Amino acid sequence: MKTGVKIARLREQRKLSQEQLADLIGVSQVTVGNWEQGKSIKHDHLKKISTVFDIPVGFLLDDDKKIIIQKNKDNSINGYEVTVTTPSYVIENLFSKIDKLIVILEKNSK
After folding, report:
1. Residue ranges per structural domain of the chain
2. DSSP-assigned letters across all residues of 65-110
3. How does DSSP classify residue 37?
4. What gap in Å lies between CA 10 and CA 70, rounded to an integer?
5. Is 3-61 in CATH node 1.10.260.40?
6. Cα–Cα distance measured from residue 8 to residue 22, given in angstroms and rounded to the nearest whole number
7. Which of these, 61, 67, 102, 109, has the minimum number of CB atoms within 10 Å of its CB?
8. What is the pTM assigned to this prediction?
């Protein structure tokens, strides 16, 4: 996944507008839009972005890192960093089993 796509997804996940993210980083909304469209980003801005989203800079630069967005029962969104090296059906099956395990654990904890 490209850096610009990651920035857009992280921003959307945190329910920030491009303008809000721009204010946090100290750039214009147009600049954030350009990043999300794949234009280059200065190293200093990458550091600020990683601080805003509390992620390592390497995550933004590594095309093999994926963001998988999963909605919770209360419609809140969690983001996960995953390096995908298997077919997607394997990962989907794994997440399905994890979801079932979480439901079982929640029932047992009540």
Report:
1. 3-61, 65-109
2. EEEEEEE-TTS-EEEEEEE--S-HHHHHHHHHHHHHHHHHHHHHH-
3. T
4. 13
5. yes
6. 12
7. 109
8. 0.58
Q: What is the pLDDT of residues 14-64, one digit of tens each?
A: 899 999 999 999 999 999 999 999 888 888 899 999 899 888 888 888 766
What tokens appear for 66 in the block? Answer: 């994926």
107: phi then psi, degrees, rounded to nearest 5: -65, -40
Q: What does pLDDT average to over the chain? A: 81
C-beta of residue 24 within 8 angstroms of C-beta of residue 60: no
CB 2 within 8 A of CB 38: yes
Describe the crossing of helices 3-13 and 18-25 by its angle, rounded to 10 degrees: 100
What pLDDT is recorded for position 27? Answer: 95
